[in-house]
Amino acid sequence: MLFKVIFHILCFNFIFFFATASAKNKQVIDIVYLTQEKSPPHFLSNFDIFVKNKGIFGAELAISDNNTTGKFTNQQFNLKKLIVPEDGAADDVFAKQIAGKYRYLVTVLPAEPLLKIADLPAAQQMLILDAGTTDDELRNGQCRSNVLHLLPTRTMRTDALAQYMMKKRWTKWFLVSGKAPEDLLFAEAIKRSAKRFNMDIVTEKPWEHTYDARRTVQSDVAVFSQVDDYDVLVVADEQGEFGEYLDYRTWLPRPVMGTQGLIATSWHRTHEQWGAIQLQNRFKEKAGRWMEEEDYAAYLAIRAIGEAATRTQTSELNPVKTYLLGDKFALQGYKGNPLSFRSWDGQLRQPVLLAAPQSLVTVAPIEGFLHPKSELDTLGFDQPESKCQWNH
C-alpha cells in the first residue's frame, strides 16, 4: 500500500514537472493586427449592410486554428488588435504601440498608410502582411521587401474574368468606368487583360451622371448603352456607385461583369467546395455574418505565419520569412490548389473565384491556360513582367 502511494506521488511530481517545463519552454509567436475605421459610403444601397472593421474576425479565427496546431508543436500564438480611429494616423499608432515590440504585423489599410508604415526604420525588422490592398503598383514599382500581399490584385481579377470570357468566346467588350481613382485603375487592368487575351474593347464610355443612379437609371441606362454591338458589358465601379443598376437595363440584352455582375474575388459566400463550407460555417458562427474578402485575407495571413513557424519550429523573423517565400511553403486556402507566395513580388498566388450574386460560376485559372511553373501565375503580372526590384 505504501509503495502504491509513493508510486502515485512520484508519477504526479513527474507529470507536474514535465508540464511546468513544457510551459516554460513554449515558443511564443506574437502577432499584431492593425486596421483603421471607415465611414459608410454615401451611395450605399438600402439593402446593403455596412460591415465595420472587416478582417478582425478572420484574424481571430486563424489564431485559434494556429493554437490548435500549437498544442502539438509547443507553440503559442498571441494576437494584439489595434483599431485606428477614422481621423487618426496609422503610422503614429505604429510608432507608439508596435515599433520594436513585434516581428509580425497584419494590416487592413489603404495603400498610402501601408507604405508609410513599411518605410519606417522600425518596420525594416518586421514582416508586414497586407490584407487590405489590391493595387498592382504595390507589387511592382512600389513593392517593399518587408511586405507580403494576400488579396488578389486588380490584374489577377481581370485576367480571371478574361480567361472565362475567352472560354465563352465573348470577345467584344463594352467598357464603362467611373471617375474615382480606383475605378480608373480597374479600367486600366481591364484594358491590359483585353490586350493580353486578344479581346476587343469595341466601345469605352465614362459614367458621367452625377445624380442618383437609382432614380434615373431605368431610362438613362438604355440610352447610355446604345453603342456598337458587343458581347459583354465590363464595368469598373469599385465604389458601387452605379454598376449594380446596369444589369437588365442595357439597350442590348448582354451580361455584365467586372466590379458588378460576374465578379472576380478571393472569397464569396456562395463558395462551398474543398472544405470551404466548414470555414464559412465556423466564421459565421463566430462573427454572425458572412466572411468578407478582408476577413479571408487576414485569416490567410495569420495562418501563413502559423504554417511557417510550425514548419521551421522558430519564431525568428528571417527563417520564417525565408520559408514563406520558398518553394516548400504551401498553404491550405480552401480553393483546391495550395497557395504560395511569389518570390519576386510577395504576392500570394491563388485561385480566383468568379461569382454572381447568388452562385459561384467557376474558378480561375480556367482549364486550358497553361504556365511553365504554375497555372496560378497566368493571373496577374508574371515574373518577366514584374517591375519589382527588391529581390534583384
Task: Indicate the proportion of strand residues.
Answer: 15-25%
Helix tally equals: 10
Structural class: alpha/beta
Low-confidence stretches: 10-22
Tell me the series of helices and strands, N- to C-terminal: HEHEHEHEEHEHEHEEEHHHEEEE
| Shape field | globular
Terminal CA distance reads: 73 Å
Mean pLDDT figure: 91
Side by side, the strands of the main sheet go 7-6-8-9-10-13-14
Question: How many distinct beta strands?
Answer: 14
For the report, how would you describe the main beta sheet? 7 strands, mixed
Give a description of the structure.
By secondary structure, the chain is an alpha/beta fold. Helix content is 36%, strand content 18%. It contains ten helices and 14 strands. The strands form three sheets. A seven-stranded mixed sheet has the order 7-6-8-9-10-13-14, with helices on one face. Strands 2-1-3-4-5 form a five-stranded parallel sheet. The chain has a two-stranded antiparallel ribbon with strand order 11-12. Helix 2 links the parallel strand 1 and strand 2. Helix 2 packs parallel to helix 9. About 3% of the residues have low confidence.
Task: Give a brief outline of the structure.
By secondary structure, this protein is of the alpha/beta class.
List keywords for this structure.
392 residues, alpha/beta, 7-stranded mixed sheet, 5-stranded parallel sheet, 36% helix, 18% strand
Topology:
Layout lengths: L1 H23 L2 E10 L19 H18 L1 E10 L5 H8 L6 E5 L2 H8 L8 E4 L16 E3 L4 H15 L3 E6 L3 H16 L3 E7 L6 H12 L7 E5 L19 E3 L3 E4 L10 H12 L5 H20 L4 H8 L15 E2 L6 E2 L2 E5 L2 E6 L28
Parallel strand pairs: 1-2, 1-3, 3-4, 4-5, 6-7, 6-8, 8-9, 9-10
Antiparallel strand pairs: 10-13, 11-12, 13-14
